[in-house]
Design brief:
Largest sheet: 5 strands, antiparallel
Number of strands: 5
Strand content: 25-35%
Bound molecules: zinc ion
Distance between the termini: 5 Å
Structural class: alpha+beta
Length: 112
Amino acid sequence: MTDYSDELANDPAFVQSLRLEDVLKAYDGRRGCMCGCNGRYYVRPETKAQASEKRGYPYTAAEVDAVEVARILDALKADSRTRIQDGSILFIEDRQPGERNLVVYLLKERPA
Ligand SMILES: [Zn+2]
């Protein structure tokens, strides 16, 4: 297992090495508030329990969608503006008006 250190922040090779298995949850929404009013969060079946515990209430069946999580991760990996924040959040920096907020939250410890 690997710890996400600050040294990994903004390392393009690290971003490219990320896999679906490294993701806790993902978000896709319009710019602005990220409480869920502007978009949606998605979790993988394997992370539903952990993500629900963190959020404080359960993710619904409609929010358990590994295909959406993979789509968001792939979009971030394909964008050179993707940055890492706080060691576990992947997002696109300097989004332009009209672009969507795409965010991936990584598991704190990387699966082997
Ligand atoms: Zn909101």
